[in-house]
Write a structure and sequence with these properties.
The structure holds two protein chains of two kinds.
Chain A (H helix, E strand, L loop, with lengths): L2 E5 L1 H20 L3 H21 L2 E5 L6 E2 L4 E2 L13 E4 L1 H24 L4 H20 L3 H20 L4 H32 L4 H10 L6 H19 L5 H10 L2 H26 L5 H22 L3 H22 L2 H29 L18 H15 L5 H15 L3 H27 L7 H4 L5 H4 L8 H19 L2 H14 L6
Parallel strand pairs in A: 1-2
Antiparallel strand pairs in A: 2-5, 3-4
Helix pairs in contact in A: 1-2, 1-4, 2-3, 2-4, 3-4, 3-10, 3-13, 3-20, 4-5, 4-10, 5-6, 5-10, 6-8, 6-9, 8-10, 9-10, 9-12, 10-12, 10-13, 11-12, 11-16, 12-13, 12-15, 12-16, 13-14, 13-15, 13-19, 13-20, 14-16, 14-19, 15-16, 15-19
Chain B lengths: L5 H22 L3 H22 L16 H7 L3 H32 L4 H6 L4
The chains are: A mainly alpha, B mainly alpha.
Amino acid sequence: MTESISNLWSIALLVTIPIFATIIVNLLFNRNRAIKYISLISALSLVVITILSPYGFQWFTGQPALNPNTLTFTFDASIPAWRMALEFYFGPLQQVLIFVMALILVLVIGIATNGLTKNQGPYIGMIFLLFMSAAIIIMVNDLYHLWIAVEIGSLVVVGVVAASGEGIGQKAALKYALFSALSGAGLAIALALILGLTGYSNISDAIRYIQTTNLAGMSSILYVAFGFFILSWIYAGGLVPIHPLKSEVYGAAFPHGTAMLQAQSKLMLVAIGLVMLRLFGSLPFAREVMLSISVLTMMLGVVMALLQTDLRWILAYLIVSHSGLVTVGISLGTYDALVGGLFQAVNDVLYMSVLLLGCEAVYYFGKGTSTKTAVGIAKKAPWLALAMVLGTFAASGIPPFNGFQSKIILIQSALKVGLPEVAVVILILSVTTFIALFRGIYSIFLKPAETTPLAVSGSVPSEAQEDDKETPIPRGLYLSLAILVVITLILGVYPDLVIRFLTPVAQAVSIPWYP
Amino acid sequence: MIQVTIQLLAFFAAAVLVIIGIAGMLFLDNLIKKIIAFTLLSDGVNLLLVAVGYVEGGIVSILLPGMSTSEFASRAVLVFPVGIVLTNIVIGVSTTAILVALAIVLYRRYGTLKASKVLKGERR
């Protein structure tokens, strides 16, 4: 791909198309047919733009972050040039992550426009805004836009969760909104502190200033800023200690909405994580703190998943737990670990989407997603059962699926830096993921239908149980599952299709791990 | 000895507002009081940003007719933090609106504004 040094057309389109789509579908409100076509065309155009776009930047003031020798964008802070720009960058990492997000957007919109009958416009609009916030956050190279994108993304998450219309969704939305207010303010304070300390909002400029200036007594301000960044990172990815809150958000939203939420969350984790690694990676104990949070998230998330009896909630906790895998790679910060972490983010979005869309399909059998009520579905929907089993294999890191490739890179990188305990935790996570998922999938798909405890227990039937009607699964849902399963298989066999997009950033950002 | 300046006082006031805001959001039980605490937190952040851009004896960062660029550069307050404050005000209003909307919906459902009861799902 060639790289342009003039403002890039695609960056503006990746931000404005979702905004215009949101405005139009909101105006159309309940005209479902028109909403369906407009939103599908908009989402497909985002996929095409991402594929066709060259690499380059969009900046608002000053100069872009250019390597003076090659006149190409660089993350390398040792390049002695002051940028002073509010800038967006579209490069290989951005291309692959935004492509995956746009693909999920198309599939989710296809499902949502078929499944929802009321208030479709505002809901689809929020799905578009989720995409927009994630696209901005992964493209920015300045703290100002980073903060704005995190704030917008948080508010949209609240809207998507509240849109489920259930009490549990509204309560989860309220809790998430309160924490988003706190962490958003924290990120603004971090921005103010770094701006006050260095005079720059541009991340490359701030790093250059920090590395070349003797901060002496002012380094404590950097630690405070790091603390607020950690708060924001924890909040964005649902890391420990707010993992129950984020899991509640994932469990309360519609499963297809959760597919978008988890994709956005992974992009936020990667974007904020990379910024933290670049800004604070050389601070003593900074990466140790990040690594500890990541390992705890992996362990606690998967333990909580084992305790659940509803497929929706099993997936909710597993999404949080697997976020820890992404952040382990970023926290270690070495070249291999970064490649593994970033690849894991891509794989995670794909295989979790398989499982979430499969979970959505289970709803069509009219008995909810509880392992106690929804049983014996494999007889009625063998292809759905197969997709869920393959999704489980991918999530558990079983070859030849994509999860295996990223996990093996992470394990190798943990061993390489002399942290075998982290490698063991990743292995345990893989095994426990398999147990947690297969337990749920066995009950829902393979357990004979006559053993349903609904009549035996005499418990009060839930809303889903009362609505004991089977409706045929839309073909679009099957098609979405098939596309995602094929991609997870292809990436498992040919990981280099994605890895070659991740290596330039990993090379530029990586820092050796010190004992 | 630390010289007490307007900037230092502003930093101190901002810290007080932020701490009161965070404490209110975490420890107050009434949803409306939590939202008010958030507005205090947001105001504290705004004050911090304004203080970061403060220049002793500074002028508004508008290049007036007859003013030399060197004089402007030496005296004008930093304009970027002011821009961030404007953005933060907009974000603060949006967040407050969403929080109030959720509080109304949950009040209709549970008949109370007590966070402890709403989050447990108990009616008044």
